[in-house]
Amino acid sequence: MTLIDKIIKLKKEKNAVILAHNYQRPEIQDIADYVGDSIGLSRKAMEEKEAEIIVFSAVDFMAESAAILNPDKKVLLPTLGARCPMAQMLTVDEIKRWKVHYPLVPVILYVNTLASAKAYCDICCTSANAVEVVNSLDAETVLFGPDHNLAEYVQRKTGKTIIPIPERGFCPTHLLFQPEDVQVLKMKYPDAVVMVHPECSVEMQNTADFIGSTSQMCRYARKTNAEKFIVATEEGIIHRLRKENPRKQFILAYEDAICPNMKLNTLERLYMALKKEKHGVSVPEPIAKKARKALERMFELKS
Ligand code: 13P
Ligand code: SF4
User: Fold this and answer.
1) Whose CA is nearest to atom 1 of ligand 2?
2) Strands, sheet with 16-21, edge to edge from the N-terminal-most edge strand
3) Ligand 1 centroid from CA 260, angstroms
4) Nearest atom, ligand 1, residue 212 CA
């Protein structure tokens, strides 16, 4: 029996579902029950009724959100050490420091934060809905963290004053993309459409024909008539893009754009986590209760 067969068998026996982020290894995406971006995965986790176990193949903050939104389920991470470094960049103390200076200003946190930080915000957002979330608030100035590039993107799109907290939070993987690489690729593929994740620098965003979350990129690639795409986000997305659009061509804007944290998850680790029901993720209820409010407020927005 292959490892894939063993996982499928175990999944049935234990009544488990596998949710995987768009950056997961191809073989994990291929056995997952659902593959998506952070909002899609959170929604799936929140709405999951049947399964008793959710294997969340991604990084810490995403599994934490699933545990917060569906506290009755057992949420397992294939690798305990799969942590998003950006999420570690904003501490509760830092939020409190900013709130002293801006006591009446709402705090909006990207889901790429730890549950303890989410407990101190008014509402969460993802890269798919950050503009909509900020526009939904009756405030001209907001504190926004931890991604500085997403903050700048939201500022440009909303015209509001976005104060980034911390001042320069970033994703080390998206920092690797440089506009010069896009220029070179554009010489080779002049009719290619450029898709950029808002975690990339403003200079990279300026090269884009389309800016959006990972699943928004997938939707855009399916709908548009373009046949070639230069893609500026983590390389795992290329597998899904090619699978969904076999006749289209996808070129990664920087070949080594790999999130080492996302790639810590392997089929072997996923199998062991499910078999032994290890690496359970849970959030203490006093923190979960506050963080849940911020996440649910986001889901209450129409789209
Ligand atoms: P998405 O919500 O666009 O999938 O982004 C999550 C993430 O971690 C990007 O680096
Ligand atoms: Fe975090 Fe960046 Fe990896 Fe996304 S790609 S999980 S933001 S380190």
Assistant:
1) 84
2) 34-36, 16-21, 53-57, 74-76
3) 14
4) 3
Query: Distance between CA atoms of 118 and 259, rounded to whole angstroms?
Result: 23
Token couple for 231:
């893609």
Sheet holding 123-125, edge to edge: 123-125, 107-110, 141-145, 161-164
Q: What is the pLDDT of residues 224-274, one digit of tens each?
A: 999 999 999 999 999 999 999 999 999 999 999 999 999 999 999 999 999
Question: pTM higher than 0.85 for the full model?
Answer: yes
Q: Which atom of ligand 2 is nearest to the CA of 21?
A: 6
Task: State in Å: Cα 42 to ligand 2 middle.
Answer: 16
Angle, vertex CA 12, rays to CA 11 and CA 17, nearest 5? 45
Give which of 38, 5, 10, 12 is closest to 24, Cα–Cα: 38
Alpha-carbon distance of 121 to 14, in angstroms, equals 36
How far apart are alpha carbons 147 and 205 in whole angstroms?
A: 14
Cα of 1 from ligand 1 centre, angstroms:
34
What is the spatial distance between Cα 73 and Cα 6, in angstroms, rounded to a whole number?
Answer: 22
- Output the CA 67–ligand 1 centroid distance in Å: 18
